[in-house]
Amino acid sequence: MRHSMSKPEEGAGVSSTQPASRARKPFLAALAGERQARPPIWLMRQAGRYLPEYREIRCRAATFLEFCYTPAFAVEATLQPIRRFGFDAAILFSDILVIPDALGQTVAFETGEGPRLEPIADAGSLGRLAEEPDWNRLAPVFETLDRLKSALPGDVALIGFCGAPWTVASYMIAGRGAPEQAPARLFAYRQPKLFAALIERLVDASAAYLVRQLAAGAEAVQIFDSWAGLLPPSEFERWCVAPIADLVAKVRAKRPDARIIAFPRGAATQLGKFEHMPGVAAIGLDTSIEPRAAIEALPGPVALQGNLDPLALVAGDAALDRGVDRVLEGFGTRAHIFNLGHGVLPETPVEHVERLVARVRER
Ligand code: CP3
Fold this sequence. Notes:
The protein is globular and about 55 Å long. By secondary structure, it is α/β, with parallel strands linked by helices. It has 16 helices and 9 strands. The strands form 2 sheets. A 7-stranded parallel sheet has the order 1-4-5-6-7-8-9. It has a two-stranded antiparallel ribbon with strand order 2-3. It has helices spanning 26-31, 52-58, 64-68, 71-85, 98-102, 123-127, 135-151, 165-174, 182-190, 192-216, 233-254, 272-275, 291-297, 310-315, 317-330, 350-361, and strands spanning 89-91, 107-110, 114-117, 157-163, 220-225, 260-264, 280-284, 303-308, 336-340. The structure holds coproporphyrinogen III (CP3). The site of coproporphyrinogen III has 21 residues, from strand 3.
């Protein structure tokens, strides 16, 4: 196991502990609907502040976006959790808010406070957004994926991602992560046509972005709809389901073989709506749903990803072990990808992640 390097070295990969000649990567086998005795594992937000080696390189860039747009940093941050824990998949180090940034909205990340955007208030500010993302601005993301292809061990899959239109729009309207995402929900009620135009812009931009990520080396892509659960049922179809279906269809039109993971967080009772979208190979489950209920709602062949409570990972000890066993047993009959129900929290002890991986691999 290698720990932090003094400098992100070009081309410094990770050596594999398993034979690279393996027929298929376990993560991709699960996405193909294959049940495995030991499920593949990766964690949302597996890179980032809970890792001392991340904090060390993060402070070498002036801003978070500059860090994301510097391939040497982004490659290194992507590889750090793979070196430490040997996860079955690496997720591109970037952020969902690079899309508003590339559309010309002002985006900044304040340390300890989260994202700050110049809010979209009316037709005027929407009109100032570009028709399509500035691909030069996003070029470092594709360069990062390209470099990762050769830096990863042969059995580790590479995941790209974007935010779902609703979740990205909620930050663009409020200018920040607002309680209940109330500003975006109000905007959608009051100015549905304008909101639909924003969603449409995001569907097109995100589809083109994912197509380019797949061309650059991503083997699967995840759509993060972190705030899906805040939409009431009457709005859910229009702002969550339909835009994701559109986005998936547009990606598949260009890349018919694209493997897509949908993560509509908080959408427990509506999960069935994502199951038969052609191209959705797996559904990410949040902490709120019992494995049994998820299996009933989603009879397959879609793979299920999730759903350990990130706080059980912070707590460690018996709470962690019990949580892991519940997830393993609960999804044992299905093609399953072990993950959390949401991202790794910054206060998570590294040893707890080691314990988690060891327990999943004991199987
Ligand atoms: O999963 C990974 O390891 C890859 C990297 C990744 C980041 N953000 C890095 C990041 C991914 C996949 C994301 C997705 C993302 N970004 C989501 C969807 C997933 C989720 O957590 O719900 C959302 C909603 C965002 C928007 C965002 N970015 C917020 C709200 C914040 C501030 C809060 C926070 O968690 O820090 C960010 C900043 C951010 N994105 C950081 C990292 C490592 C922290 C910034 C820093 O290190 O300085």
